[in-house]
Amino acid sequence: MATQKTVAFHTLGCKLNYAETSSIKSQFESAGFLSVPYQENADIYVLNTCSVTDFADKKCRNFVRKALKINPDAKMVVIGCYAQLKPEEISKIPGVDLVLGASEKFKVLNYIEGLSSVSEKALVHQNDIKSLNDFTSAFSFGDRTRSFLKVQDGCDYKCSFCTIPLARGKSRSDSIKNILEKAKTIASHGVKEIVLTGVNIGDFGKNESENHPASENFLQLIEALDDVEGIDRFRISSIEPNLCNDEIIAFVKQSKRFVPHFHMPLQSGSDVVLKQMRRRYKRDLYASRVQKIKELMPHACIGVDVIVGFPGESDQLFQESYDFINSLDISYLHVFTYSERDKTIAAEMEEAVPMNIRKSRNAILQKLSSKKKKQFYEQFSGLENNVLFEKTKDENLMSGFTENYLKVTHPIKQQYINTIQKVQLEKLNDEMQFEIKLLS
Both 368 and 392 in a single domain? Predict the structure, then answer.
């Protein structure tokens, strides 16, 4: 009797990548493969890559080495954004057998059989990103109490620092009808929370396929999802500030299922730098969005992406950015150190910021993020809230999030896993998590 073949997956990067990895994993399982953790021996390793920073590229090489250290005879497959941008570079990494670009990654099973023969060089299947018009749906499933549901892909923006349009192509979307069907499928498996993901989800509605309704938009999507039974919470993963309009904010306030949590990339608090970045707004618009959210939902959580060390960001401009961010009523920052990316406009710009200064500015904003997060959390100390509980790596603990993204921790009670419970938020620990009292 033949031994069942095993496959292991690892994902680098964003929630969208996690959703796509999960869908590809389901394809393998349907074909008879047994999924195992990436840290275990497997016949095939699939690495889904990111290429937002140079560090992500280095991580790719790292995880290839880790897999082949476990099983030197395993077949190594690399997919994702890095695979689309630099397929030949990846094909030269020792041990890599197959490299699949953006349009081919969902057809990985078609190429697996061809890996049975020994080859010194990896097979590469990657098409011109401009030819990619199709939308492939995906959602994560089975790992946690929440699912990441892909609703949009690609981006038509031309930010001077970004490779994503080169890695994922033009903006395109699923239809509301299909997304509702996926959400109902997720609900039927007991998942309580869905996080909507995409590259630029506020741009939802664009698709060149004939069967896609041209009039659909993001507001219509979330209005439709709000009526899906069985899902207690919907969360918007990230939305551009120019697309997070008053109608969307007002809808979230009165929604039955969409939670008061917004993640809006800012990238810089300096209009000079925003212009160089080719962003589609100025900081006044960003401030007005934050003000509107807090006006309607004072308890809302607002997360912010920021890039430090962009070319031309002088000490004065960085201070301007810092002061602006400090003035905002936000909850936390995701801070990225700028790194030059091939084929981007910013990579050719003058006045590069020395790396040591970039790292120093990152540390400064990390401290600001900690301060903002502490201030946000402390507002809710002693108050009651609802928490969706999940398991942690520590078998003795469970953790969870409130609707407005406050993290809590508590000794595990198995019957509470994947349930929403009323709690009282008590002590804030050193990890910036609330210790709680269960009220139900």
Answer: no
Average of pLDDT values for 249-253?
A: 98
Dihedral sign, Cα of residue 388, residue 391, residue 393, residue 399: positive
Tokens encoding 375: 């201030």
- Helix pair angle (246-254, 283-296), 10° resolution: 20
Question: Identity (one letter) of the amino acid at 35?
Answer: S
Q: Tell me what the mean pLDDT of segment 23-51 comes to.
A: 91
Residue range of the domain that includes 419: 384-438
Closest CA to 64 of 16, 103, 98, 27: 98
Q: Are residues 180 and 316 in the same domain?
A: yes
Average confidence (pLDDT) over 53-81 = 86
Look at residue 166 and tell me whether its pLDDT is greater than 70: yes
Residue of 122, 81, 118 whose CA lies nearest to 99: 122
**Residues listed for the chain:** 440
Tokens of 148: 């990441």
Question: Helix H segments across 331-415?
Answer: 355-378
250 located within any domain: yes
Give the CA distances from residue 377 to residues 295, 300, 335, in Å, rounded to whole numbers and listed in that order: 18, 11, 19
pTM: 0.92
Instruction: Return the closest-CA partner of residue 137 out of 146, 145, 148, 129.
Output: 148
Q: β-pairing, 420-428 with 384-391? A: antiparallel
Give the CATH number of the domain where residue 430 resides: 2.40.50
